[in-house]
Amino acid sequence: MWCGGARLLFVVLLSAVSLPAVWAFRVVRVGKGLHRPQSFSRSRTVSARVDGAELFVSSSVVLYGKKKGGGGKKGKGGKDEDESDSGGAQANDAAMQAAKDELKACNDKMKKTMDSLSEQLSGIQAGRASPRLLDKVEVEISEDDGSKYNQPLKFISTITSPDPSTLQVNCYDTRHTVFAEKAIMTQESGMLARNMGDHLIVKLPIMTQERRQELQKKAKTISEECKVSLRTARRDSVDKIKKSEKKKELSEDQSKTFQEDIQKYLDGFIKKVDQETKKKEEEIMKV
């Protein structure tokens, strides 16, 4: 009774094998209690009646690999999961690079803060007179045409130390000597400048115990301000890392690693601040 159906199935199979793909077949016998398949997506269906029953042969193409333009599982928004995974990986790579750049930027900021600390501490008198005590002095120069501009004293003169309590300033242009004198006298350093015509003689204040304690306190204040700047740099960088984590651009572990690296930077620089400050305080208190 199934001879006719068998022949039909053989013909269908033979025609399907000739197609340039691999075919999967489904045979459904529709009889009592069974229902006709509504449709087979992307398939060819052949039917025939055999002894009052319908025989359906469905051949569906199965392609190996990914079709151009999609074919993978669909994720949210109708996008292929493969495409979503690829996009997520690219976003993570970009976020990782941004985090590394932020790490470098944070380190650079902290280094600049340390440079500023060294410069400020060097401007505090301690023991023998040093030309670096005048590093931060800015001189306002007035020209004959009425124009004015500022120049660091160290750029317009040579500064030497003829004895432990004296500095000598020789301006390259002697007309600037009077301007240099004014700039030094307006500093809150206690130094006294005397104009000798072609150069200045600068006397440092006597280092009394009270003066030493005052300078020591100043060094501590500069140190604390430096630490605040370092912590601010740490906080700003950590906030950016956390923002990337919140956006799911970085994983929790990646974010934690970057934050730990930033904390290590801070700990290292804080240690250097304490070391430099302690050294300066010892110089100040040394009689």
Summarize the SSE layout with pairings:
Blueprint: H1 3-17, E1 22-30, E2 43-50, E3 53-62, H2 81-122, E4 138-142, E5 148-152, H3 153-156, E6 157-163, E7 166-171, H4 177-185, E8 192-195, E9 200-203, H5 209-246, H6 252-285
Helix pairs in contact: 2-5, 2-6, 5-6
List descriptors.
single chain, 287 residues, alpha+beta, Gyrase A, domain 2, 4-stranded antiparallel beta sheet, 3-stranded antiparallel beta sheet, 9 strands
Provide an overview of this structure.
With 287 residues, the chain is an alpha+beta fold. Among the domains are: 3-34 and 41-62; 128-203, Gyrase A, domain 2 (2-Layer Sandwich), CATH 3.30.1360. The chain contains 6 helices and 9 strands. The protein has helices at 3-17, 81-122, 153-156, 177-185, 209-246, 252-285; strands spanning 22-30, 43-50, 53-62, 138-142, 148-152, 157-163, 166-171, 192-195, 200-203. It has a 4-stranded antiparallel sheet. The longest helix is centred in the middle third of the chain and has 42 residues, at 81-122. Mean pLDDT is 77; it is low at 8-72.
Care to give the gist of this entry?
It contains 6 helices and 9 strands. It has 287 residues and is an alpha+beta fold.
Largest sheet: spatial strand order: 6-7-9-8
Helix content: 40-55%
CATH topology of the domain at 128-203: Gyrase A, domain 2
End-to-end distance: 122 Å
Q: Please state the oligomeric state of the protein chains shown.
A: single chain
The CATH class assignment of the domain at 128-203 is: Alpha Beta
Mean pLDDT figure: 77
Unreliable stretches (pLDDT < 50, length at least 5) are: 8-72
Order of helices and strands: HEEEHEEHEEHEEHH
Number of helices: 6
Main beta sheet: strand number and arrangement? 4 strands, antiparallel
Shape: elongated
The count of strands amounts to 9
Q: What percent strand?
A: 15-25%
Q: What is the CATH architecture assignment of the domain at 128-203?
A: 2-Layer Sandwich
Radius of gyration: 42 Å
Structural class: alpha+beta
Region (Disordered): 68-94
Keywords: Cytoplasm, Protein biosynthesis, Signal
GO biological process, one term: translation
Pfam families: RRF
